[in-house]
UniProtKB/TrEMBL annotation:
SUPFAM superfamilies: dsRNA-binding domain-like (SSF54768). It comes from Necator americanus. GO terms for molecular function: RNA binding. Residues 65-111 form the G-patch domain. This is G-patch domain protein.
Amino acid sequence: MAAWAAAKNLPGKFTGSTGLNVLSSNELQPQDPRFNAWVKKMLDTALTIERNHRNDMFKNARPSVGGVGMRLMQKMGWRPGEGLGPDGMGSIEPLVLDVKNDRRGLVAQEDLGSKTVPVPKASGDSVAPKHPVSMVMELCTKRKWPTPTFISHESGPPNVREFKCTAIVNGVEYTSNVVSRSKKDAKSLACQIVLQSLGLLPRDPLLPVVI
């Protein structure tokens, strides 16, 4: 152990730490003299002193003497040093104000503004995102096709009915292979297959596509 300690002993070399923050040459003498380290330090110190002085000015200010409020209270029988209220049990010391130096929390919902997402314009026969049944009806009207026909298929026990729907659009049948629990959902799936088959909706791998 003594030999190891002697080996680590380096005369004239300090191996500890003084905690000193050594500034770089750019911090000591930058190209712009406004950014000198000592200038920034002085500005920070001046701002801190001014902020503390402002807080002390409000928090340690002398109470106001006189004024309309005090004259009215004295007419009603109040005397300086007495508590407020009809029984004189109220507060004697004036209210202490808390000075806010920043603007954190001072925001209204209206200031945030509404985040609007731009909706891409539909090109050609593409339809804006709506309910699939409404989209099919509008598509048939736009292309001057006959009104689509929907045929519902029911199966299963009375307490657990299963529904499938076939949509006939422009003479083409589109049938869903997915079982639904209501006629409304089955009709919506059939219309979704129509739109996918016509390339108006992204492909869903769970639904068939009629070409």
